[in-house]
Amino acid sequence: MSVLIIAEAGVNHNGDFNLAKKLIDMAKECGADAIKFQTFKAYESTGVFAEKAQYQKENVEIQESQLEMIEKLELPFEDFKRLKEYCNEKGIIFVSTPDGLESLDFLISLCIPFIKIGSTEVSNIEFLKAIGKTGKEVVLSTGMSTLGEVEKAIDVINSTGNQNIKIMHCTTDYPTAVEDVNLKAMVTMREAFKVPVGLSDHTMGNEAAIAAVALGAEFIEKHITLDRNMEGPDHKASMPKKEFKAYVKAIRDTEILLGDGIKKPTKREKMIMQNVRRSIVAAMDIEEGTILSRELLSYKRPGYGIDPEMGEYVIGRKIKRSVVKDELILWQDI
């Protein structure tokens, strides 16, 4: 099964429908399987007294509250309906993260393939129950969480009768420093909860995704942007087109590198084998009619003669023709 690559557009459209369409175009051109947005009504998730998170303060220098910032990034529900239609035209999966019950109900009406739960909602029990009751497949992002908190979130969703859960390892920091990625935690969650796992990657390079795929990630999410210099909280930790295209290629190449797990020679190795493996050859000139002993045999290249492991079946037999030193001894010769 191929790794599902999700281009995280998030709020990098900056509240502009046409920029959102361009992000869809970019994701498709770069080879992503899906593109994900964030659907919300700002007042549902953020109060007037909420300050911006540390990374938001660092990435957006404007002095404003978190609510004021988020309000500028909000798209009307109708725009998301049009974006999903555009994704259908382009042949890329449309997904979006709901940040409240209104946005959840709206996204369900769009028949999205799964519900992505943001890391901020891991402890939002009522919201988790509402999501579980939809019966949709759930992908739970786990940034800022302990293993116990993830377990509780899974239990809450399961309590609704929804057992279709996947876990996305995540570090909620934009960008994430290499030392904070902790990919082994992804493996820990897979083993602890017996569910498929993936990575929401906020690092600046390709290495985390490559390592995650090697460790068994079934889906990878990565923020994309049209330009890192655009105003907004996530642009600086997102990938522009050229980098994201290379990112997708790195993941696909890693899948190819991992192969099918069956240990066998490749087609080219089978060709090379004839030249570099060893065969039974004459250790010295041997006259016709000689009974072959171990001392008369050697094992040298090329490899298209009798395999050395068959030596015991050659020793003690009479050779039917004269051979010179290093000449292959073939089955028809004995």
TrEMBL record:
NCBIfam families: NeuB_NnaB. It comes from Clostridium cavendishii DSM 21758. Pfam families: NeuB, SAF. Residues 279-334 form the AFP-like domain. This is N-acetylneuraminate synthase. InterPro entries: AFP_Neu5c_C_sf, Aldolase_TIM, NeuB/NeuA, PseI-like, PseI/NeuA/B-like_N, SAF, SAF_AFP_Neu5Ac, SAF_PseI/NeuA/NeuB. SUPFAM superfamilies: AFP III-like domain, Aldolase. CDD domains: SAF_NeuB_like. One of its GO terms (molecular function) is N-acylneuraminate-9-phosphate synthase activity. GO terms for biological process: carbohydrate biosynthetic process.
